[in-house]
Design goal:
Chain lengths: ~180, ~180
């Protein structure tokens, strides 16, 4: 495998959500360059389906893009937590349901050109009402949409973030193979 | 629409690929907090299909995740360029083909929780051999896979970055609606 050898690494910022470092690397051919890398915790992203075949989405304002977006629930895996535990906690915090059945549907890197974040994708079903209080989830609005309407919401751009498009189509596509 | 009013903004790092700033914001309820925001140029991501119904993918080492990944071609829109021009340039630089027909298939934010990047998704067909030299594309290996094999490459995790999963499934799903 081609690799880039790290000659030097410098942390330039450490925040609550992201850390930024600059690596000086030697490319396979011997040339040197730098790589700016955003370190972000790994996350879970959840396709949650209720008993009436509706998907539970969350609408929230995203400062980075200055827009309200309609997304699948997602959040960071906390220290000491498994990804399955993170799914159960996040779903209770963001949409107020505990998933009695979860299934991992693979996952993906968010933006591997410059960011470390990997998202574990889960299907959550057999939902029981159960809310957990959390900071930063008060501004989240829960939106339920029938599974059959999801392709149109993606085509129209109503759902327009990579993890939601990838996660929902991964779930929908499963039914076709 | 709920919004967060910017009270203060501080640029903490400015690099070649990313800029990082910290905004102090007032949430709709009046509470104050900070938002760490990675600024990244908008990009194009390309599902390129040749005359034999094969998708052109690129394999390259990604330092941020310390792995070689198999992805759809993608790259930043340069200053003064339209997204369509970026598609034509990137495809010539990364895979050595000029697309005589392109069609926008919408797009998505890469990671709107903390990053500004928006990816315009394009379908590129009617490909003519035409290479453009560029820095940083020498380590890229072009891989052609039949369209019919793409779902398995996603299920298996061989393709495992959000833009490629979202972009390819968006293209494949089109055929089903």
């Amino acid at each position: 495998m081609k690799q880039e050898k790290t000659l030097d690494t410098e942390q330039v910022f450490r925040g609550r959500a992201v850390t930024l470092r600059v690596d000086t690397v030697e490319k396979p051919g011997g040339k040197r360059t730098t790589r700016e890398i955003v370190e972000h915790s790994d996350c879970v992203a959840i396709v949650a389906v209720d008993d009436e075949d509706r998907i539970l989405l969350v609408r929230q304002f995203r400062k980075a893009v200055e827009e309200e977006l309609l997304e699948i629930p997602a959040g960071g895996i906390e220290h000491g937590e498994t990804s399955a535990q993170a799914v159960c906690r996040e779903l209770q915090e963001e949409v107020g349901f505990f998933p009695n059945t979860i299934e991992e549907l693979g996952g993906f890197y968010a933006a591997p050109g410059y960011c470390t974040e990997y998202l574990h994708l889960y299907l959550a079903t057999d939902l029981t009402q159960s809310a957990l209080e959390a900071e930063d989830t008060h501004e989240i609005e829960v939106v339920r949409v029938p599974v059959s309407e999801v392709p149109d919401l993606i085509s129209s751009g109503d759902i327009r973030d990579a993890k939601s498009v990838a996660g929902l189509l991964r779930f929908l596509w499963r039914g076709h193979t």
